[in-house]
Here is the input.
Amino acid sequence: MSRRDFLFDAGMQTFFQSLSDIERYLEPCHRYYSLTCQHCGLGGHLISHGFIYKQLSMHERKTMGKRVVCSNRFGHSGCGRTTQLVLAECLPNRQYSAWQLSVFIVLLLANVAVVKAYQLATEQVSTRQAWRWVAALKRNIMQYRLRLKSPVSVTSSWRCTHPVFATLCALVNGLTAPVCLAFQLSAQTAFI
Ligand SMILES: [Zn+2]
Here is the structure.
């Protein structure tokens, strides 16, 4: 391993427990000497690039994370691309939070109907997204299975005999925190 590899081998974490964890992670000593851009792999060019907010209402917004840019200006020779570092409760590019999706999954596993589970989790009357969530969960099933420590076993619940539900059930049982948050923190990849 070269000295350069030794200095820049940390990659980039994208999901965090708290905002202060993000702040600590982006301290100058880490940005300059250990973190590498997840797009181009270069180290030493990451610059803080502002907060990420979620608009809660007309007058209220919540800080969900921070952006860093791999700078190609002012003497830097990075790729110019941006990375978002967000709280684990944030589902990237989705309207609802990882808390709400976690509730939806737990309700499905408790044999609540898909549409009802969606309404309870999101407090929405419209259910257009309910089946999209189910489709997204099905698409990601291999990703969930990769994270399971033991093979999926079929339980007595009729619903858990379905491969997707059985996998989600094993995932929920294997984690101590809400499933989507815990998954995003440990796998460092979006749940859906
Ligand atoms: Zn880069």
